[in-house]
Design brief:
The protein is an all-alpha fold and 137 residues long. Helices cover 68% and strands 0% of the residues.
Length: 137
């Protein structure tokens, strides 16, 4: 829990700092990246990517990692889940470890979310705080 508290405080302070150097009026959207905003994304991605055993589904994904990697091409159907299998397959090519799959998923999903929040939210720090506190992160 301590890691989450430190991460939340650090990310919120960085997000507030990022807001001081960017336009906030809707007519000035979308925004370009600045260093504090990039650091917000980097911290959230790194904490998420380096997690171990966190979440009720972690061990299920870890145990199924080899099957996900092997089934990648078979899951392109209407009820298939090719996303996690693509990350597993790519992780298998890079490192043959489920940690790589988790890191790739964190980079893509959290990176895209923070990019969208930064680009379009007039209240970036508040949006990031909600993203963390509602459990989406």
């Amino acid at each position: 829990m301590f890691v989450y508290l430190v991460t939340f405080v650090l990310v919120f302070l960085l997000a507030r700092l990022a807001e001081t150097n960017r336009p906030s009026l809707p007519e000035e959207l979308p925004r370009k990246w600045n260093l504090p905003a990039l650091l917000v994304a980097a911290v959230l991605i790194l904490v998420s990517a380096l997690r171990w055993g966190v979440g009720s589904d972690y061990w299920n994904y870890h145990a199924n990692f080899p099957d996900y990697a092997r089934e990648f091409t078979e899951e392109f159907s209407i009820f298939g889940e090719p996303g996690i299998r693509f990350f597993a397959w790519l992780g298998m090519q890079i490192n043959e470890d489920s940690a790589t799959m988790f890191a790739l998923a964190a980079f893509v999903t959290i990176g895209l979310i923070i990019r969208t929040l930064w680009k379009w939210s007039p209240a970036f720090a508040f949006s990031v705080a909600l993203f963390i506190l509602i459990g989406a992160w």
